[in-house]
Amino acid sequence: MNRTVYSIDGKELRSIELDDAVFGLPINEDVIWYAINNELANKRQGTASTKGRGEVHGSNAKPYKQKGTGRARRGDKKSPILVGGGTVFGPKPRDFSYSMPKKAKRLAIKSILSLKAQNNTLKIVEDFSIASRKTKDLAGLLKNFSSGERTVLILKDDDSSVKRAAANIPWLTFLSYNRLRAHDLFYGRQVLLLETAAKNLNTFYGPETGRALLDSASADQQEAGE
C-alpha cells in the first residue's frame, strides 16, 4: 500500500510503499488481546503479602475456657474470624510473568499496525531530531499532527534528544521500531511513524525476517534435542 509522508509542518511531501504483510493484514483480535494481557501480566510486581494465623503476632493461649461460658469455642486470638487475626488464603509474593510465542507476538504487532493503517490513525512523518532537546520544541512540532490526545511516536533508533524532549509530555509515548509494545500501540489515538522507521518495519516484520526467526528457532530445538 502507498501512504503519504508528511513534513514536520504537516504538509504532504511524497508517498512511501508499506509492506502489506506488515500493514495490510486482517485484524486478529484474539492475538492482540493475548499480547496486551501478556504485557500487563509481566509488568505486575506481585509484591502483595498478607499474614496467616501462623504468622500473626499473638499468644497461642485460649482467650477463655472451652466450656461453661455460653460463648463460641475459641482456639486463640489469631483466628481468622477475629479482628486482628490472620488472613485466610490471602495473597503472597509471586511472579505473574509468563512467556508468549514469538510468532504470536509478531502477529499481534502487525495486526495493530494494520488496524491503525486501516483506521487512518497512522501517519508517516519525515525524519526529524530535536537538537535543543527541549520539550516545547517537540510539543510545537506535534501540534501539527495531534491535539493533545494519546499519541505514540515510533522512532528509527534510540534518539536520546527526542526521548529527552518527550519525557515531560504526558500524552506522548515514544517507542523504537524494533521494541514495540502492543498495549501502548493499541491504545494510542494517533500513531506517528518516522519515515526511516517505516522502512525498517517493512524489513523487521516482513515475511523474510519471520521465516529467518522460525528457522533459527527450529535449529535451536534440534541442537537441544541432540
Please specify the SSE layout and strand pairing.
Elements: E1 2-6, E2 12-17, H1 20-23, H2 29-43, H3 102-118, E3 122-125, H4 135-142, E4 151-155, H5 160-166, E5 172-176, H6 182-187, E6 190-194, H7 195-204, H8 207-225
The span between the termini is 44 Å
Q: What fraction of residues sit in β-strands?
A: 5-15%
Helix content: 25-40%
Looking at CATH, the homologous superfamily of the domain at 2-33 and 101-225 is Ribosomal protein L4/L1
CATH fold node name of the domain at 2-33 and 101-225: Ribosomal Protein L4, Chain: A
Query: What is the CATH class name of the domain at 2-33 and 101-225?
Result: Alpha Beta
- Structural class of the helix and strand makeup? alpha/beta
Shape: elongated
Could you tell me the number of beta strands? 6
Largest sheet: 6 strands, mixed
Radius of gyration: 27 Å
**How many individual helices?**
8
SSE succession: EEHHHEHEHEHEHH
CATH architecture of the domain at 2-33 and 101-225: 3-Layer(aba) Sandwich
Overall pLDDT score: 87
Low-confidence stretches: none
Q: Which strand order does the major sheet show?
A: 2-1-3-6-4-5
